[in-house]
Write a structure and sequence with these properties.
The chain has 126 residues and is mostly beta strands. It contains 1 helix and 6 strands; from the N terminus they run βββαβββ. A 6-stranded antiparallel β-barrel has the order 1-2-3-6-5-4. A hairpin with a 5-residue loop joins β2 and β3.
Length: 126
């Protein structure tokens, strides 16, 4: 069994804004979820999304399946956002409480461990 991502690396906190519909005033209705003990790695790579669109990523967010909490199904959150006709965004805060930035979630990869369970999530952010 693979060991979790070291806790000393997981010092950031992320707040997701997930669109879930449209209000009576034609504004997006969102739900907000906060996940603690994550890691934001600055990045500058080009990847293809699930819809075969080419995007330049500004960072990769690492979320450990055992140490990050609460546990969420990020694929379902992305599906909810797409069903509402919008994109999922997130704001990352570092361990000192400073905001590292606001990002749009472009890619979601659930990486398995040697037993087939999710070891960690990697979210590509632009």
């Amino acid at each position: 069994m693979l060991t979790p991502i070291p806790a000393r690396i997981l010092r950031d906190t992320v707040t997701f804004s997930v669109p879930v519909g449209i209000t009576d005033y034609q504004q997006p209705a969102t739900k907000t979820l906060t996940v603690q003990r994550v890691h934001l790695q600055s990045d500058n790579t080009t990847r293809r999304t699930a819809t075969n669109q080419e995007v330049t990523l500004r960072g990769t967010l690492y979320i450990d399946a055992r140490l990050s909490f609460p546990a969420l199904d990020y694929w379902s959150l992305q599906t909810d956002a797409q069903a509402a006709g919008a994109v999922m965004t997130c704001t990352v805060k570092d361990r000192r409480g400073g905001v590292s930035g606001t990002y749009t979630v472009q890619t979601i990869d659930g990486l398995p461990d040697d037993e087939g369970n999710i070891h960690h999530w990697e979210l590509g952010l632009s």
